[in-house]
């Protein structure tokens, strides 16, 4: 019996690319915006996850934590919102505090299920928008759609599904060291 442990779909730079990732491998080639490592950023508080039947309290806080873990080492300063507010309010507050970038994560789908009993795979869809606060421009948008395997022993929770895509995105989103012309 063969199968995919998880699949991830990553959409970046407004170009949809599907990545069927066997054994949780993530492969994508695009020219993502490269952010400098000495930048400062403010990350908005995401919404709680939901699906057609349930809302999942606490998923916003958990998602913010995993986003922080994936991105914090790449910024000089990464400040996290303490609670959910409107995107516009948080954007303006971040701009007023002179951050370089504003990161807006939003959960568009979250399904937690006892896959073995229900046959329904866990799933998470997350979009991350990155704005340059100096130019007031949206500079990058990444969409993650990750679905767990239904195979016993390979199931992953939505938070576990986010780890690998976020690590891959963080590794490709930031400049490594100093620019070549510096």
Outline:
The protein is 24% helix and 30% strand. With 182 residues, it is of the alpha+beta class.
Question: What secondary-structure arrangement, pairings included, does this model have?
Answer:
Blueprint: E1 6-12, E2 18-19, E3 40-43, E4 49-50, E5 55-56, H1 59-71, E6 77-80, H2 87-96, E7 101-111, H3 115-118, E8 123-132, E9 137-148, H4 158-173
Parallel strand pairs: 3-6, 3-7
Antiparallel strand pairs: 1-2, 1-9, 4-5, 7-8, 8-9
- Count the beta strands: 9
Shape: globular
Contiguous helical run count? 4
Q: Look at the helices and sheets and give the structural class.
A: alpha+beta
Q: What is the spatial order of strands in the main beta sheet?
A: 2-1-9-8-7-3-6
Taking the sheet with the most strands, its summary is: 7 strands, mixed
* Share in helix: 10-25%
Per DSSP, what share of the residues sits in E-state strands of 2 or more residues? Answer: 25-35%
Order of helices and strands: EEEEEHEHEHEEH
Describe the protein:
- The chain has 182 residues and is α+β, with helices and mostly antiparallel strands.
- The protein is 24% helix and 30% strand.
- It has helices at residues 59-71, 87-96, 115-118, 158-173, and strands at residues 6-12, 18-19, 40-43, 49-50, 55-56, 77-80, 101-111, 123-132, 137-148.
- The strands form 2 sheets. It has a 7-stranded mixed beta sheet, with helices on both faces. Strands 4-5 form a two-stranded antiparallel ribbon.
- A hairpin with a 5-residue loop joins strand 1 and strand 2.
- The model is unreliable at 1-31 and 177-182 (pLDDT under 50).
